[in-house]
Amino acid sequence: MKRLSLQRRITIGLAVSLAVIFSAQLWAASHSARRVVENNIAENLTHEIENLLAALERGPDGVLTLRPDGETPIYRRVYSGHYFIIHHGGGVIRSRSLWDEEFPALSDGLRRVPGPKGQTLLAKTATFNKSGQRTAITVAEDVTATDAEIAAFRNRYAALAAGALLLLLGAQMIIVRVALKPLERARMNAVRLERGESETMETDVPAELTPFIAQINRLADITRKRLARSRNALGNLAHALKTPLAAIMQAAEHEKVKGDGELYLLLNQSAAKMARLMDKELGKARLAGGYLPGKGFDTARDIPPLLKTLELMHRGKAVRAEARYPDTHLAGFDSADMMELLGTLLDNAFKWAKGRVSLAMTLENGLAIMIEDDGPGCPPEMMESISERGVRLDESVPGHGLGLAIARDIVESYNGSIGFSASPLGGLRVTVTFPPRR
Q: pTM for this structure?
């Protein structure tokens, strides 16, 4: 499930909140307008009821009648929208405007009722005791036009509210985008830190982000120091073992002099193997020791001294190194990691080459590295075992002591892949590919 960005979350939250608020305001405004209008109409209806009640009088036969002057002209026009009906003990008195329509019997109070010709009436009923007779007077007024006006008001208000909502959302998006710019800058700082373009993140951030950035900088500093210590520790350990190893070799010579050939052979072979391993690890420490962790890999800066160092390390062999690579700064790769990777692969190529080593780097859809030599190569039946993860080729490939376990770890830490095949030069070809970095 795709996670929403912080800006989108804020936008959606504000949009929902404003929609609820504007909807509530729309309902409140429409309801209030309707109540105000109905209250005014109800007050007029009350006055009409009072006028009709005053115009009622008992006739000679004792039946209540309505004086002619008690009925205003609007009640005489058919379907005028103003109606009354009077129920008394002696019968019913209806306004002319009702024509042949009838009202249902209503209890006291104010309510809406259907009227003639599809009209909606607001009717008010009041009951009195007039001349000893129970008299119920109902007066009604057509509110169809009023309802239409209220509906038009509601629509106008809704349109204005929708416009205001869009303006507020637009303003909010701009405000949030500006407010979140420090987060985007912090993200880019983190990318530069990852690529090795900087050693710390900028601290010129809002107060809310300051503790977070400070913690990241502390973590980056600790990581750099630990990485430097771990890379130096290997060389220090190998140096520390030099003296005990020399003592073992002297003891082996002593046993040879004494005539114990079997013990001499065992001690000498073990010491020689340890010496070769330490020389190799010391060589890698020399290759990577001069580079600071967290720095991007610069081909023009880093590869020439690497090749020069390897030529000095293998100066007893007439090996010609060919290097083809783009002059570029690879910010997504740590300089020390790349120096250790290339140093390990090239060191082994120099070790087994007869006279030629080739290095080629390309930047097509990621980084590709190809290292070849004209040495004895690797038997075809061993190629599959070379590609197996975790296999230490120093021990598994007779005559081709390639220490690739560390190189493999570096490649896999960058989500890359490493492969082995026969080289047209006659030796081994090592191909390393990395996916594009962010």
A: 0.46
